[in-house]
Amino acid sequence: MTNPIPWSGSGLLEEVRQRSGTEVSACFQCHKCSTGCPIGPEMDFLPSQIMRLVHLGAENEVLGSQAIWLCASCEACTTRCPMAIDIAGVMDALRIMAIDRQTVLPDAHGKQFHRSFLGSVRRHGRVYEMGMMATYKLRTFDLLSDVEKIPQMLAQGKLSLLPNRSGGIKGVREIFRRAEEEDRKP
Amino acid sequence: MKYAFFPGCSLESTARSFDISTRAVCRTLGIALVDIPDWTCCGSTPAHATSDSLAVALPVLNLQKARSLGLPVMVACASCYARLRTANHRVSNDPEDLRRAGRITGRPYDGGVEVRHVLDVLVNHLGLDAIRAKVSRPLAGLQVACYYGCLLTRPPEVVAFDDAEHPTCMDELVAAAGAESLDWPFKTECCGASLSMTHSEVASRLSHKLLSMARTAGADCLAVACPLCQVNLDLRQADAAKAHGAFRPTPVLYITQLLGLALGISFKNLGLDALTVGAKNLFAKRDSGAVGFAGGKP
């Protein structure tokens, strides 16, 4: 993609371009991304529809969609886009914008999982899976799913009752603090 | 041959057997591994989905630690591999990412530490001839569907050690181990990744699709090289069968476990006792000298 379409109709389009570093305006709706998307059947909007909604400046629809949180970041769309749009990168930018704008999400599981995961990294330097799962389950009131798998995983040594803290924990906490500062910059 | 090893969080927990088998195979093949001292989490999907700064800074912190060892980095987890490669790609190509990574970590880093996946090291650095020469117990008669998943080959500008749509390096390793690698269509389809935690029904649907296709292609087992692929395909088989229809339980092994068996390493020293769908039956017949495989039983 070398020739962006000059168009000033949407602040959303420009913000997504800046945040993702990719030229969403180049999308001509070939739907190759949607055809190959493994999560398409569950999405409220397909990836190509998200691209179109960004063109149209439909901010509420895009940031409030379930699709941006269902995206598994498998990179199939990014790899196959004939216009070299980093569609998975656009999904990341939209998730970050939805969090920044405190958008009411139709389904907060994705956001809560990411929060619980990063909280664990910030505390221990590495993911402590038992703690992370407990936090996530409490945040989503989803206490029972998969609990039947835990005894077996403990027995096989796949889960540990205690965190395995990295010696580099101080550096990690400092990085979280400075990253927050950077993310707050306009 | 010597590498700085980045294990990543999964290899300490759900993918312990990937850790054990990778180290065992490298030891046998003469690849020395030095763990990156005090390595920390790469941030994985939760970082790139919620903070652009963390997504670059957490991998860079580890690459700076690797630089102090003066060695190229070897990674086993496909997600860690993709995050470290992406960070290198970004700081090498975008001056603002370079400056921001320096500001956050407090030290400059130019993206210069080489990062390779264990598959890449085995096939392209060590080479198949060296591996064949060490195979003492070939997996003759075993039919394997090699499953690459997403992040080992995508996006190709970032990872690029094999073809993005039709990778073959794992198939070549399986053949070197004396087994037969199958031609099948879902090599690079997604397993649902971390949706396994947030929307397990999606992961079940995708696992069912992959496992049924592998069965239809005639696979005795699947070979994988990613912790999340292994957990989704192995641990969710009962859920997938319940939701989408029964299929024959199929063992899902790390490629390092299969290769390790061919190199004569024991079941236990490859962490093969920690599979949900057990693999003992796959090798019972090889070990008794008969031909053909009955498939695994849970």
Give a description of the structure.
The complex is a heterodimer of chains A (186) and B (298). With 186 residues, chain A is mainly alpha-helical. Chain A has 2 domains: 11-100, Alpha-helical ferredoxin (Fumarate Reductase Iron-sulfur Protein, Chain B, domain 2), CATH 1.10.1060; 109-180, no CATH class. Chain A has 11 helices and no strands. In chain B, 48% of the residues lie in helices and 9% in strands. Chain B starts with a strand and ends in a 10-residue tail after the last helix. In chain B, the strands form 2 sheets. Chain B has a 4-stranded parallel sheet, sandwiched between helices. In chain B, strands 6-5-7-8 form a 4-stranded parallel sheet, with helices on both faces. Chains A and B meet through helix 6, helix 7, helix 8, helix 9 and helix 11 of A and helix 2, helix 3, helix 5, helix 9 and helix 10 of B.
Based on CA atoms alone, the radius of gyration of chain A comes out at 19 Å
- The beta-strand count of chain B equals 8
Biggest contact: A-B, 64 and 60 residues
Strand order of the largest sheet of chain B: 2-1-3-4
Number of domains of chain A: 2
Order of helices and strands of chain A: HHHHHHHHHHH
- Helix and strand sequence of chain B: EHEHHEHHEHHEHEHHEHHEHH
What is the topology?
The complex is a heterodimer of chains A (186) and B (298).
Chain A: H1 11-20, H2 32-36, H3 47-55, H4 59-63, H5 67-70, H6 76-80, H7 87-100, H8 109-124, H9 129-140, H10 150-155, H11 169-184
Chain B: E1 2-6, H1 16-29, E2 32-35, H2 44-50, H3 52-67, E3 73-75, H4 78-93, H5 95-105, E4 115-117, H6 118-126, H7 128-134, E5 143-146, H8 169-176, E6 180-181, H9 195-198, H10 200-216, E7 221-224, H11 227-235, H12 237-244, E8 252-254, H13 255-262, H14 280-288
Parallel strand pairs in B: 1-2, 1-3, 3-4, 5-6, 5-7, 7-8
Helix pairs in contact in B: 1-13, 2-3, 3-4, 3-5, 4-5, 6-7, 6-8, 10-12
Brief account:
Chain A is an all-alpha fold and 186 residues long. Chain A has helices spanning 11-20, 32-36, 47-55, 59-63, 67-70, 76-80, 87-100, 109-124, 129-140, 150-155, 169-184.
